[in-house]
Amino acid sequence: MLQMDKHKVAVFRPYLFEVGQKIHIEGGPRKGDWEVIGVAERKIRLRCPITSRVVEWDRFCYFVQELDDVQWPQE
Which of 11, 28, 45, 51 is deepest in the core (most CB within 10 A)? Predict the structure, then answer.
């Protein structure tokens, strides 16, 4: 049997956006404040509250957390 050691592991999950949500992206080329105006299987439509610019991007945001003392790799 393979021995499973304990490690610190970063966990990523797709974020489930909702139309009407106000979001803030902290960094990267999409940084800033946005309103969610459309959600599809693979795309998200956002509107800038300052310029009213509308963009459509592939879904890109993920919820992240770090957990201590987690079995890795998982069985």
Answer: 45
Query: In this structure, which amino acid lies at residue 32?
Result: G
Long-range contacts from 57-65, C-beta under 8 angstroms, 24+ separation: 57/30, 59/14, 59/15, 59/17, 60/30, 61/14, 61/15, 61/17, 61/23, 61/25, 62/12, 62/13, 62/14, 62/15, 63/12, 63/13, 63/14, 63/15, 64/10, 64/11, 64/12, 65/10, 65/11
Closest CA to 71 of 12, 13, 2, 23: 2
Q: Are 34 and 23 in contact (CB under 8 A)?
A: yes
pTM: 0.71
- pLDDT tens figures, 2-27: 677 888 888 888 888 899 999 888 88
